[in-house]
Write a structure and sequence with these properties.
extended; disordered N terminus; mainly alpha
């Protein structure tokens, strides 16, 4: 019996597998996609994923991730600071 390849599956199983792969690539839980955290501009998300797929050297991907994490950390600090000043 031949095992079906993920790419050839149809329906919910294929969608679940794809969502798992995307979540793994983004290093986030699958539940993040269902918590109303939709991006404000889906075209930017699509571009980010397209560009990510082009980056081949693992070292370059690590640099991109490091940069994104620093941007998020800075953004979180700014948001927290703004929240405290408005209280």
């Amino acid at each position: 019996m031949l095992k079906q390849n993920t790419a050839s599956r149809r329906g919910p199983d294929r969608s679940a597998d794809l969502l798992d792969r995307i979540a793994e690539a983004l290093d986030c839980p699958v539940s993040a996609f269902a918590e109303g955290q939709a991006p404000s501009d889906p075209s930017q998300t699509a571009e980010l994923l397209r560009l990510w797929a082009i980056i081949e050297p693992e070292e370059d991907r690590a640099k991109v991730l490091s940069f994104l994490r620093s941007v998020v950390a800075q953004s979180s600090l700014t948001t927290a600071s703004n929240s405290l000043s408005q209280s």
